[in-house]
């Protein structure tokens, strides 16, 4: 499973809003723009994105062009990030074929920041950009060691725990979201304990969580130190935080608390439709996915509580290549698109949760509720989560490490009954092979 690819697709579903299809031109992300678009003296700015990124769909391009009559914006989209990102690296290497603005997925931002920063504009110096308006950890992800900020965050993926109130009630657990959050507040081991309690009276054919891998991803996402150390070296094999995440998730599997599902597969989708698991670690962007797969039968049965510890999964950035012919205008557009007001609108229209913390006090965010999830105050829940996420050390091969831990290692423990150690050894071997170590 490729989470970065899936994110590009399902982020478009938003927090309860179904997205339109991606504009997939089938063309490269580039095509350096030229002034005089449309023959009317306008400057054409091109934006290269992956998937249904949401900026166009939310009407932000149209709004900007109304405010700036001399600007025309054209977007090209490659549906899958796994195809988009290699092209972006190729174009950055050659200095040609680039759009004026290029999107970068969070799993790629560390590599871009470490290896391509010299080919990207320092957006931190752009007029109107305020560092303090963004979440500190989001700003840090696209900032080089010498202080150049080469990407402005569009969205983040703060996580909660989505749970089925009906299944909780049948298992004798509280259903009020505040009381549910208190069951596991501050400790992922308490989440495990709640699962054990659920199992004693679980409705027939149901499990506490969807998958052990989902639990592991949520726990690792709540730690500052994960796969890389401060010196840039891979440390996941010896990092206590990763070992804790692995051990807790493996216990979910070995103690029979999971639905033994792999996320973003037909079986997982069917689990939502049939109500076969009671909880799932859910970023803000996943709510729309749950609504889509759970259907009308799931309305008001699902709710959202705070996760044991603040965690993040997902998010993207906008960058401006130095090779672009309209760098100044592109930087202004990138700054405007990621400003708090626009991020709040993107959240309202598309469900992409703002990376600009200054947007959290805006009524569109602070007052946001989700009808499908029993009117849960999602603006407040996910704002608190986002503000609590630690500044994480991210590395260029984070995605490879995470994928193999989940889909090679933990999946064997969860679905094939392998021991925790056997699963770990299989994952390490796969990662070593992938990284040529």
From TrEMBL:
| Pfam families linked | SBP_bac_8 (PF13416)
Is Translocase tagged as a keyword?
Answer: no
> What are the UniProt keywords, alphabetically?
Signal
> Which interval of the chain is the signal sequence?
1-22
Q: What InterPro entries does its record include? A: Bact_solute-bd_prot1, SBP
Task: Tell me the superkingdom of the source.
Answer: Bacteria
The name under which this protein is listed is Extracellular solute-binding protein
Can you name the source organism? Streptomyces maoxianensis
């Amino acid at each position: 499973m490729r989470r970065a690819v899936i994110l590009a697709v399902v982020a478009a579903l938003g927090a309860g809003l179904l997205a339109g299809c991606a504009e997939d031109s089938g063309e490269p992300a580039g095509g350096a723009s030229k002034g005089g678009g449309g023959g009317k003296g306008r400057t054409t700015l091109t934006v290269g994105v992956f998937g249904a990124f949401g900026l166009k769909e939310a009407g932000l391009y149209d709004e900007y062009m109304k405010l700036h009559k001399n600007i025309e914006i054209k977007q090209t989209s490659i549906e899958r990030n796994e195809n988009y990102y290699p092209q972006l690296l190729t174009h950055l290497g050659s200095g040609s074929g680039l759009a004026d603005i290029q999107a970068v997925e969070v799993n790629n931002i560390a590599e871009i920041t470490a290896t391509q920063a010299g080919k990207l504009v320092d957006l931190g110096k752009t007029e109107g950009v305020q560092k303090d308006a963004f979440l500190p950890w989001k700003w840090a992800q696209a900032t080089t060691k010498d202080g150049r900020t080469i990407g402005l965050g569009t969205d983040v993926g703060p996580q909660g725990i989505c749970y089925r109130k009906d299944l909780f009630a049948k298992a004798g657990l509280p259903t009020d979201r505040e009381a549910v959050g208190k069951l596991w507040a501050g400790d992922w081991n308490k989440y495990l304990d709640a699962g054990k309690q659920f199992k004693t009276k679980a409705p027939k054919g149901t499990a506490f969580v969807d998958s052990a891998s989902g639990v592991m991803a949520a726990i690792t996402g709540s730690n500052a130190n994960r796969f890389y150390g401060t010196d840039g070296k891979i440390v996941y094999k010896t990092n206590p935080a990763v070992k804790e995440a692995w051990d807790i998730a493996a216990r979910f599997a070995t103690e029979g608390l999971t639905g033994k599902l792999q996320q973003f597969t037909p079986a997982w989708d069917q689990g939502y439709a049939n109500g076969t698991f009671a909880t799932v670690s859910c970023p803000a962007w996943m709510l729309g996915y749950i609504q889509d797969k759970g259907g009308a039968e799931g309305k008001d049965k699902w709710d959202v509580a705070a996760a044991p510890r603040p965690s993040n999964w997902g998010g993207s950035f906008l960058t401006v290549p130095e090779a672009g012919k309209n760098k100044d205008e592109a930087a202004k557009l990138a700054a405007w698109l990621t400003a708090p007001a626009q991020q709040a609108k993107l959240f309202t229209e598309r469900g992409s949760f703002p990376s600009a913390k200054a947007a959290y006090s805006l009524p569109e965010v602070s007052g946001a509720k989700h009808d499908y999830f029993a009117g849960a105050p999602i603006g407040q829940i996910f704002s608190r989560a986002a503000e609590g996420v630690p500044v994480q050390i991210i590395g260029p091969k984070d995605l490879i490490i995470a994928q193999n831990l989940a889909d090679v290692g933990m999946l064997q423990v969860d679905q094939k009954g392998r021991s925790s150690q056997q699963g770990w050894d299989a994952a390490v071997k796969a990662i070593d092979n992938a990284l040529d170590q």
